[in-house]
Fold these 3 entries.
Entry 1:
Amino acid sequence: MKKCPKCGADNKDIQRFCSYCGASLASPAEGKIYNIVMRRPAGLQWVLNVIHIKVDGREKYQLANDSAVTVRMIPGQHEIEMSLFGQPRKKKFTFFASEDTALICTPTVTSTISYLASPVKVVDSYGRTY
Ligand SMILES: [Zn+2]
């Protein structure tokens, strides 16, 4: 028996899709691997500090101005943590890898004072903000 990851129904081992809800029964390892591109704009040249990125609490990346990192992920929910200037500006959100997707990371800046207390702003290629 194969348990549907979406609705929990039992399906026969030979089935590739759930007969109740139609979800794929392929294990994540059999599925496609997606590229998540995290890009940081060239603007804000005076913000020289790198954005620190942690994916699923493990891998670590550093994102400088006008640069990008590509992370390969299996479909599903992932936790992406970003921080600028350490703990106080840390931002943690759950990202669902479903298509080749770009995340645009930038510190939110409205004035010098609010900049110092502002978090990292993240917009994906569909315009969703996190
Ligand atoms: Zn199902």
Note: Strands lie at 2-3, 10-11, 34-40, 51-55, 59-63, 67-73, 76-83, 91-97, 101-107, 120-124.
Entry 2:
Amino acid sequence: MAVQWEQLYAERCDGLNASGIREILKVSGGPNFISLAGGLPAPELFPVDEVRRACELVLENAPEQALQYGATEGYEPLRAFISARLARLWNIRSTPDEVLITSGSQQALDLVGRLFINPGDAVVVEDPSYVAALQAFISYQARFLVAPTDDDGVRTDALEELLAREVVKFIYLVPTFQNPSGRTLSLPRRQHLLELSERYGVPIIEDDPYSELRYEGQAIPPLKALDPDGRVIYLGTFSKILDPGMRLGWIVAARPVLDKLVLAKQPADLHTGMFQQMVTFEVVRAGFLEPHVQRLIPVYRERRDALLAALARHFPDGEVTWTRPQGGLFVWATLPPDCHALDFFREAAQEDVSFVPGESFHPRGDVHNTLRLNFSNAAPHKLEDAVARLARAFSKVERGKRRTRQYHEPLAII
Ligand SMILES: Cc1ncc(COP(=O)(O)O)c(C=O)c1O
């Protein structure tokens, strides 16, 4: 008898659909193709020599430890390094044993879902939100309470109404240079949010991969730095400031919560690879990161400026609007209401250029005219070329088309 696979899958995987967009992205990768889709750092800035040297050093000095099983909590010197660095950078107070090393912050999102979400539990998310976080929470059958955002980030007045109405497990936010919108939560709203968290006893999950990538303006402290009593669970990562292929992130949380997260991580992968933890520690231990981030910033600033200038040049009439992020990797654009970003996406693929249609970032999947543009992975002249192609594609989009099919295709896209 044939295995009826479809009948065997657990309900928690019902919301995880393969995406037509991913399929298109797979086929359209020729030499002339320019992708503004993924959130990929610039590979020419990867610290290849430093990693090579560190690999040799680790294998020379401590091969038994590097290739052996390790503690679930992570490599002790790396935990101490992260704790000290967060104190130095942002005045985030933690002890090394309040730091858990994760396999990227994507795993941290999964662990948070695993630890807190029962089927049907309410979780507050922003509209739009980071799509892979939504997916992680969907796989634990979360119910989303959706808080609107504006140019200052999530609207805490609306969030307050949600908290007054429903019992909520946690609030998930990317407060700084958000993926996908590039927006940053203002300081007064950060303070309001922490007050709400205290009033309603609801924890905040602060996902913060981008804070260090600021290209202009005054730094705003992470929520975790404003949190005196451990109500914020802070997620960080080396992905955007060093090398995402290493898959190294971290969670900072009060000790009792961290102990539980450690237990949740054990069945997932026992621990994050010792080798990459030790190699990364070797790379960063003597102060490599600060000058490295200072090298990234002007390159990404130039790319952001190139993308914004090209958008202004090729979409001059105000029909299409976009955010002007002070940091991070993304610009978020809004098309006229009679335009569907998926139609635009298909026309763009014909012009050998891609972006991510915004639909999957909207937790209800109900907004069709937004899209995310990445600027970190292409040189300025390519960004100009990409936007010229986008403008050509846009002129071909059929407007006001009626749809017979409802699209909601969550994307496993970074
Ligand atoms: C907001 C946000 N959270 C988490 C991640 C996942 O990062 P990591 O590579 O550390 O798993 C990303 C990656 O783009 C992101 O933008």
Note: The two ends are 39 Å apart (CA to CA).
Entry 3:
Amino acid sequence: MENPQPGYAMHPHLLGVFVIEALKKIQWLTVPVLSLTLFGGLVGLALYIPRHGVHPVEPIFCAAFVFVVAMVVSGGYHRYFAHKAFQCHPAVKLFYLIVGCAALQQSALVWASDHRCHHRYVDTDKDPYSAKKGLWWSHVGWLLAEDPASRQNLLRNAPDLARDRWVMWQHKYWVWISLPLAIGLPLLIGFLIGRPMGMFLWGVLLRIAITHHTTFTINSLAHRFGTQPYSDACTARDVWWLAPILCGENYHNYHHCFQSDYRNGIRWYHWDPTKWALWTLAKLRLVKGLRRTPQHLILKARLEMDLKRVPAPAPVYDRLLALRQTLLDAAELYAKARKNYYEFKRSTADRSRESLLAAKENLRARREAFEARLSEWRETVRLAFRGLASSGGIS
Ligand SMILES: [Zn+2]
Ligand SMILES: [Zn+2]
């Protein structure tokens, strides 16, 4: 009987070629750096702490450095270089470029280019860290077995960055800039407090490992667990419990839906220190043009998701369709009244106290009307689900 794939599966020569090609794809610099920082840090500290204890400076420095670098990756590499969600003063840009090197996550150019591919081709083979290839791949596997050919088109989706001589300077020298920051600074402090080995373990190895794996978590866990309040078009999710370590990047469903917004957590109580830092920098005139998604678009996305979740046979589905338009109209009127009021308040033209009060009253009325429609919407959605639950549709 003829072999359907003659000589292919087990041919020693082809097997050898396959192994060589697989080995070529392994990133021989990335593998030891990622392994040494994570396992070296953990094992080293497990051996070091019982004998030498912990100096308070070591964990404090480690946590502070993790936080600063996370803010720079989030605000600089991500929201500024990859998404251009705002414009910034040259001093801030330089800060982002220099401190960003300490993340040891490639140059801003490569990072932003990969990330733009991620958004454009999310969940497909062209997505560098596609969540569809599994948790391991999206977390770290893509870095270990990255195809260098994929980098050939690097500048194609980042022409704006390729034209920026500061970005290209950092792209050329980022490894050299990272050494004094990521290794030299912690070691210097280690010598000053008389514990260079302690600071090497805490401030260099563990700090780099935490910085790496928190960023990787956005690509892995935030594409696997959590909720999809704005869109289910891709795997991205909002994961509230990752907030403490991700500086706002955990609101990933919102971000994939409205990627040029400078905020990821849009509610006042959403833990998004990056957005607060950018807002503060804007007040100090160090950044400008913070981009915000109009409220009615956010509302529209949420209503669409509500409608998708209420199954078609729900008795109140038609009512929801009618309510959606009423609610969107009320939201638009509220937004206009708000804009008018604040423009009027800031205007230098002569305005009477009565006209200002009238604008304020109009704003209050529009807000109340919007909130009433919103409550009605929420109650109707609740009723829809309750109705289905009592009829056995949803348990
Ligand atoms: Zn994503
Ligand atoms: Zn993004």
Note: The first helix runs from residue 12 to 25.
